[in-house]
Amino acid sequence: MSIAFIDLQSQRRHLGDRIERAIAKVLEHGNYIMGPEVAQFEKGLCEFSGARHAITCGNGTDALQLVLMAEGVGAGDAVFVPAFTFVATAEMAPLVGATPVFVDVNEETFNLDLGSLERGIATAKAAGLRPRMVIAVDLFGQTADYPAIAKIAEREGMVVVADAAQAFGASLNGAKVGTLAKYTTTSFFPAKPLGCYGDGGAVFTDDADKAALLRSLRVHGKGSDKYDNVRIGLNSRLDTLQAGILIEKLAILADEIIARNQVADRYAQGLGDIVAVPKVPAGYVSVWAQYTIRVTDRDGLAARLKEKGVPTAVYYPIPMPSQTGYSTYPVATGGVPVSERLSREVISLPMHPYLDEPTQTKIIEAVRASLA
Ligand SMILES: *Cc1c(COP(=O)(O)O)cnc(C)c1O
Questions:
Q1: 198 and 302 share a domain?
Q2: Which of 61, 192, 194, 315 to mutate to test the pocket of ligand 1 (most atoms within 8 A of CB)?
Q3: What pLDDT is stored for residue 226 in this prediction?
Q4: Which parts of the sequence carry N6-(pyridoxal phosphate)lysine (predicted)?
């Protein structure tokens, strides 16, 4: 029996025929674009998160672009993004003509470092850029420090965006993802904590006017109907079929988050004495999109685990400022040494809600043996 890194088939078995029935229902009514399941799922997202408005869209990358468009971010604007993240976080700023400015992350949480953000703001101003937006990432399922980020952003007149592609369902001091920043974006890519069977995404906000604007932007900048086009927009909608699937998956998300935390606790107990395991500060609840440890000989560990049938993955091997397509954009003064070190040391272990105890014990023993 091979061990899965993320086991979507176990989840499917757990759901029984609920997915098939949800799909059959859509095939029956035939409203494939913006059918009733889309609005129903958006309502479910609001109920789960506590956000006033949830606007679904084509994917988590489009969600970021929609937010940049809704705020009119463009030429001359600095958008602060962490150097240690998936490319999409930084990708949309240049697409709308703005400049991404790379900021380092905190070694313990993997999330935006506040000192580096301050240095980045100074770097941007010295380059003649206007600080407009900070996109913090809730990496691996744990939120960034939004209360602290908000203080800096307020002082500078910047909008805060939470890129929660990996963290829908997580919380900070009892407040759920979707309510921690002016805008929150997420992704329903299959491997994310709340994933569909294709692409999908959403934007959350409490601002009714911006929500209406986002609903226009996702359908070609429509006015009162789709043949009345009042602005430049995108074609970025969540498919009705995916919404139907997501309604069923959202119904089990709370239980899955509990299960993910049990898996994380077992890893911490089994490995905490020999490797750097992730730390969850007081007040944070992670949804563990990834369980990421740090070791000095990362590639050696990956090879030995592979021999023992344990799959691993590296998120992320190259910090953003070292990516060929991004090497010309500004970096906060002082550079991003933590992001560079993490890129060399991180390795993620199998993590999903259906990882049973005997399998996990095998993984833990394999890691211990490989490091001995
Ligand atoms: C997955 C991911 C995205 C992009 O989501 P897609 O739905 O694949 O477009 C953006 N940011 C982060 C941090 C991600 O992990």
A1: no
A2: 61
A3: 81
A4: 192
Contact 168, 175 (CB under 8 A): no
**Pocket of ligand 1, candidates 138, 166, 287: which has the most ligand atoms within 8 Å of its Cβ, to mutate?**
166
pTM of this structure: 0.98
In terms of Cβ atoms closer than 10 Å to its own Cβ (0-12, 13-18, 19+), residue 19 is middle
Residue 2 in domain: no
Ligand 1 atom closest to 61 (CA): 9
Looking at 182, 192, 210, 249, which residue is catalytic?
A: 192
Pocket of ligand 1 from Cβ distances under 6 Å: 59-61, 85-86, 88-89, 137, 163, 165-166, 187, 189, 199, 201
CA of 283 to the centre of ligand 1 (A): 25
One domain for residues 152 and 235: yes
The SS3 assignment for 135 reads: strand
284-285: strand order across its sheet? 175-176, 171-172, 284-285
| Enclosing domain of residue 347 | 253-371
Same domain for 229 and 296?
Answer: no
Confidence of residue 101 (pLDDT cuts 50, 70, 90): very high
pLDDT band at 85; cut points 50, 70, 90: very high
pLDDT in tens, 115-157: 999 999 999 999 999 999 999 999 999 999 999 999 999 999 9
The residue contributing the CA closest to ligand 1 atom 2 is 165
Interatomic CA distance for residues 284 and 173, integer angstroms:
6
